[in-house]
Amino acid sequence: MLEVKVGSRESELARWQARWVIETLEKAWPDLTCRLVTLKTKGDKILDVALARIGDKGLFTKELELALLDGVIDMAVHSMKDMPTSLPEGLIIGAMGQREDPADVLISPAGYTLATLPVKARVGTSSLRRKAQLANVRPDLELVDLRGNVPTRLAKMEREGLEAIVLAAAGVKRLNHGRLLGEPIPYHLCLPAVGQGAIGVEIRAGDEQIAQLVAAINHPPTTAAVRAERAYLRALEGGCQVPIGALATVEGEALVLQGMVASLDGRQVLRDFTSGSTANPEAAGQELARKLLAQGAEAILQEVRLKGGNSHR
């Protein structure tokens, strides 16, 4: 009987994702037993500051990656939207599970939609990406910083009397909060974060045994889509620095990638798309980045960096 140690953040959603990986691996490999190891990351410890102001890459991954490099764990389970576009030397993404709904969802206790929210309604989100796109569609809204895991944000919505909050649909569905009144925000209004809805398993490069094990959970269409999105983000700015959204869809071997770059106030939103192939998804990401840079994305990115924005989530 082989035992492997699976690393995860401590949040309810992170543990759900890790348990999904464990159950899938143990079903695929009957002689395998997995032990869950949870760690608290910097992003979990600093909850009273918006992510955009902390200014550090790997906020939700660094501690897990150090544990992986030190041999404390054999693999780390992450939300792909938390993963910096460049990994530490010696680590690779070994597999990605099938993606859940990548959309953002607006949740309102009163059942409001984005279109029916009252003028100057208070909407909770700390994501610069969401804020910029929401401000572009509804510049009248008051966008309130909101951090914490899914249950914490839902509790704050009630406690602070917010008219709505915006969350990733994937997390809401995985934690069975689908019973909440919610409206998926259409992609033409709000593109998701790079990798949103996808679970990734990070492993040590060259660890052939673990690589073979985690291959059982890999979903090739999800992997191709997220690779294209990450290449797009990397070509634009190399990390989680600005309001950037992207979504790749795969049908057979064909891939279509949409992308967005916005100013912090949402007054400027550049959008475009490109087509590519699952055989080389990075090429589509690089091509889309070139198209948006040619339309003036660099000037927007420079201004955002000067103002200190750094969360694409």
UniProtKB/TrEMBL annotation:
Family affiliation: Belongs to the HMBS family.
Pathway assignment: Porphyrin-containing compound metabolism; protoporphyrin-IX biosynthesis; coproporphyrinogen-III from 5-aminolevulinate: step 2/4; Porphyrin-containing compound metabolism; chlorophyll biosynthesis
GO cellular component: cytoplasm
Protein name: Porphobilinogen deaminase
Lineage: Bacteria, Bacillati, Bacillota, Clostridia, Neomoorellales
Name of the gene this protein is made from: hemC
PANTHER family, per database record: PORPHOBILINOGEN DEAMINASE
Subunit structure and binding partners: Monomer.
Keywords tagged on the record: Porphyrin biosynthesis, Transferase
NCBIfam families (UniProt xref): hemC
Limits of the Porphobilinogen deaminase N-terminal domain: 4-211
Reactions catalysed, as given in the entry: 4 porphobilinogen + H2O = hydroxymethylbilane + 4 NH4(+)
